[in-house]
Structure formats: C-alpha cells, structure tokens
Amino acid sequence: MAFNTETMVINMGPQHPSTHGVLQLILELDGEIVQKATPHIGFLHRGTEKLSEYRTYHQIIPLTDRLDYLAPMSNNLGYVLAVEKLLGITDKIPERAKVIRVLMNELTRLKSHLVWMACHALDIGAMTVFLYCFREREDITDIYEKVSGARMTSNYFRVGGLSADLPEGLEQDIRAFAESMPGHIETYEGLLTGNRIWQKRTIGVGHISAEAAIDIGITGPALRASGVDWDLRRDNPYSGYEDYDFEVPVFEEGDTFARYKARLDEMRQASLIILQALDKLKPGPILADCPKVVLPPKQDVVESIEGLIHHFKIISEGFSPEPGEVYQGVEAPKGELGFYLVSDGSPKPLRMKVRPPSFVNLQGLPQMVEGKLLADVVAVIGTLDIVLGEIDR
Question: What total of structural domains would you count in the chain?
Fold first, then answer.
C-alpha cells in the first residue's frame, strides 16, 4: 500500500521567542524533519550605512553602538580604527588609550557571551544558568556605567582615543571581577556540560564542516568550533593585541556543543587578557596629539581658548580626510566585524559599509538545520548568537 506524503510550510518568527528579534524563518517540514529553511530579514531595516553618509565622522560613533547592541564597544573600536587608518594617525594613539580599548573590549566580549549563554540555555530549557549569567553581566554593565555614563550604548571610544579616562578606583573593581570570572564559568559548566539533556540537545546538532564554514564566510567562535584556527586579534592584530598572551580555543566537531565549548573557553581567555591589560595600564594621555581631527580634552575646552576653538570646529564642521578608502576588521564577540569607508575629501564619508558577523553567520543556518528536527532549529539559532541590529543594519 502506497502512502502519499506532503510537506508543510510554517512561519517561525518573527514573533517566536527563540528567533531573538525580528527574524523570520520559512520552514518546510516533513513531519518534524526540516526539509528546507529560508531566513527572511529586513523587518528592522535601520539604514545605518546610509544614515552615516549624512553625518560627520564623529557623529557616526553613536550609530555604531546600535549595531550589535550587546557589544557596543567592539562596534565603536572597529569604526574608530577605520577612521584613524583613513586619517593616517593609527601610530599616534597613546599607549594608555590602546590598553583601555583592549580592556573594555574584552569586558564587552564577556558581556556578549554572557547574554548568549543565558539565552541559549533558556531556549533549550535551562533556566538557572540564565539567572547566573545575568548576575555577572550586571557587574559589567555597572562598569560600563562608571566609564561612559551608559549601561548599554556606551559611545565611549573617540577618533584618536577615548571620551574620558577610567574613574579612580575602577581598576580594582575590574580586577576583582576578572579574577572571579573563571569560578563563575566553572559553575555554568557544572550545570550544563555533563547534563545529559544538554548533551542530547547539542552534541551532533547543527554540524557544519570547516570547508562549508569558510565558503559561507562564517567567522568567530562558530568558525573556530569547526576546526579553523583564525582570530584577528592574533592573526591581524590591532590596538596592541600582539603584546598580549592568550590562546585561541579551537574545536573540530563543528556542532552546537563545540560552539558552546569554544565560547566558554573564550570567556576564560578574555578574563586573562583583562588582567594583563590592567598590569600594562600606566598613567598617560588618552587622546592623540592631533588637534585638527581629535577632540581636545574637556579640561582644555574649559580652560583655554585654543581648546574651545578646536572643539567647536570639529563638532560644528567635522574634519576632512584625504580622498581614499580603507577597511578595518576587528574580532568582535560574534566574529569579524568590518568597516569599509570611502572618503571624497569632505567631512562626511561618501560610503560606509559594515561587514557584520551576525549577518554572514546566519547564512549557515539552512545548512545546519536541514534534515534535522524542528526542535533543533531553536538550538542552532541560539548557538549562532545573532543580533538583528547588525543583520538589518
């Protein structure tokens, strides 16, 4: 006796809790098996790249906060490094500013991975880890608030340096947090790694090979979990990362469990880099001595007419880089975040193009879920750690 079967097409999201924003998936199902998955984006459609073409280079910095809003300082860093390269002042950034940039970026990596761990675990059904991760994230947002005045969209880095120095006494708070973090990671692992339910939901789920990951353009922990040893901090260093001693976690399995392990180990390494940055931190200036393009220290604005004039000119008119184009990539928590800038010699960029890791990594989702169960789609979305702010940029 022959049976006729038909597939069923369903919409998963953009209201589904596991799609982590306004992501829509068109799933073609044969029972519980995913035959085809098609991601649909564009519901947010922020237009950040086009908005940037109507703003001066300094005015764009707050827009970058809103790309991957869970890792604002990584966005800030990638952008200001690109502008500094365009201006030719990369070598003039003071050492203290570079160290603080590394320090805050590794705190940002922890902050982003904590939200990933919390939401990924909650999607699969582990609620306790969600509470623990947000407890530690709260400590980092407290540090953000003390440094920049904002808990989420920091807008802290500036072309040529930083908007302000670290508040007095904050270094001790950061050191205490970084020293406690490995113990917290052990707690997360104790709850999940050996848990049979967690293993069933992650081991062998969402597999992607190294070759396929490279072809798609996947970067970050998702690439390293497939056996590709690539990290821009080590392989194409910036902001002095070549002076730090850290390991790049690499796993061969290429599944959801490997991506989970890769991010946990990255959190351990981030804690070590933070401690190294604190040891390197010495007194000194936080802004490059380039008055034509770098905002003067606030004290100079208040106390000297020259500082006031420079501040007024840069804020009101901006600065005009020489015509040219640059690309700068950084190792953001989710992968390679790149900024491509084209200058026509005016105070506003002719073009700005963002290479967001979430957008590129999302292209691997169909290959990871097709042939798997519907429930596996939830686990794979979580393990990709996407943020729609930079997908619908």
Answer: 2
